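User: Fold this; tokens only.

Assistant: Input:
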Amino acid sequence: MKKITTLLVVALISLSCLAQKKELKVAQSALDNNNYTEALTALNSAESLLDGAKDKYKTQYYFLLGKALYANGTTPDSFEKSAEAFNTLFDLEKEGSLKYTNDATAIINTMIAKVNNQANSDYSEGIVLSKSPDTSESSIDYFRKAGQGFTKVFILSEKDTAFLQNSALAYYFSKDYKESLKNYQKLIDLGYTGINTIYSAISSVTGKEVGYASKKEMDKQVKMKLATDPKIDVRKSQRNGIIKMIAKNYISLQNNEKALEAIQEAQKETPDDYGLLVDEANVYFAMGNNLKFKEKLEMAVKLNPTDPMLHYNIGVMKMELKENEGAILSFKKAIELKPNYIDAYNNLGVAILAKAQPIVEEMNKNLSNFTKYDQLQAKQLDIYKEALPYYEKVYEMDSTSRHTIQTLMGIYENLEMVEKAKEIREVYDNLK
């Protein structure tokens, strides 16, 4: 009885192998005729027969499955499943015959190139559109598609971690901060640093720069005179830059505590990083900590004293803290560094006029003391004279600002500049 059972099992296994071989032949024939749907149907039937099958049939199955899903490059949405099948094939052939590995590797490389080229094209289009105010919103869609493409390249070849970094940056520009943050954090978790050596030379055929996998390969091409001007570029660690981008994503997501944590982590390696100080200052501003905001900006100014925006922002913060004289000096420095800085001219005028406020309050207390009142009024008018040229400069640069025109009207009238007051009132009436 036992012998009969054994024979029955052997017979069943043989039938299973025959069925499997038949389905694999049908799949191969369908692929030869570019009939990918028929190939997938046959492979689906063969899948249930994989258990207990010989490795040679398993490797053939996964190779044919990868090819059928790839469909000669016509189904990009199936590329990930195709690569998954090929990766299973690689695992099976890793310690044995490499019958299908080379062909499968070539197909994966073709998929990677196709997806990467499209992602690069979308990214480049996004950059072009982002430079114009009229098309900047349209750039977001291209950056999002680029992020999706670079992510797919990473999935197709996880050893190429740089594509995950490309994806994270593209998602950041698309304003998908959660997806960008996820990818940057994954880079940190993977221990990615971006340190690598790039070998390149100029092709003697095309005249364009060509990259090589190794120095040996590059030197061989140069020796054969197929390339010239060999170059070795050693890229430094990008870990700190990745942490900075994590901070920027947290800032965009308004998670200020996490943003500060990331910034302070990055500052351990580069404590004098100007950009990090500015980011840190902006986080403190968002948190309502004006003193810390001003402190960090002043530290940043010491590192980069020629940035007009820094001096302007310090001026704004000093105004908030009622430090008008300090604000005036900061706005003047911003204008010195950027002579057409309209916001700095406007705020300089505001800071100067603010000096008149306590004088006006004192005048109201001395309405019956004519001598004291006249003395105070003279100081008030001196302040108006001091502010006037800055408001005139603002008007020169923007003659449509209602606030500037109203302020000039008031100053001209107080200084009894009759003709000027008449001219600016006509401008104001026409603007209304």
